[in-house]
Amino acid sequence: MSRGRRTAGFLGALLAGAGTLHMLRPEPFDTIVPPALPGPARGYTYASGVAELAVAGLLAAPRTRRLGGAAAAALFVAVFPANVQMAYDWRRARPRRRAIAYGRLPLQGVLIAQALHIARNAE
């Protein structure tokens, strides 16, 4: 298996898992929706869950993998404000929670880079 296929498989599994969690346990995700966004947080939680599941599907199929990589990069950029909100909200939390919240910020850059690699190099 090529590195690109492994990366697509990893991102697809990550997104499928996250999308499923958004649908089954939306409450934790509701809390990190930036309050500046209009409307109820739950709508954003469900919309991002649907997007994550759709992008996971695109990454799974070789014919749509290039599009899936581009869509994954866009999705990771779109949800970054929620990660910033989480880091802000947890800035006074216990060290473990702070480490999780702050660690997500640079991790998002890694995920974007992986998604762009798939978009550029998918067969």
TrEMBL record:
The chain crosses the membrane at residues 67-88. GO terms for biological process: methylamine metabolic process. It is a multi-pass membrane protein. It is found in: Membrane. It comes from the Bacteria. Its main location: membrane. Residues 8-91 form the Methylamine utilisation protein MauE domain. The keyword Metal-binding does not apply. The keyword Transmembrane applies. One of its GO terms (cellular component) is membrane. It holds the Pfam family MauE. Keywords: Membrane, Transmembrane, Transmembrane helix. PANTHER family: DOXX FAMILY MEMBRANE PROTEIN, MEMBRANE PROTEIN-RELATED. This is Methylamine utilisation protein MauE domain-containing protein. It comes from Brachybacterium paraconglomeratum. The lineage of its organism: Bacteria, Bacillati, Actinomycetota, Actinomycetes, Micrococcales.
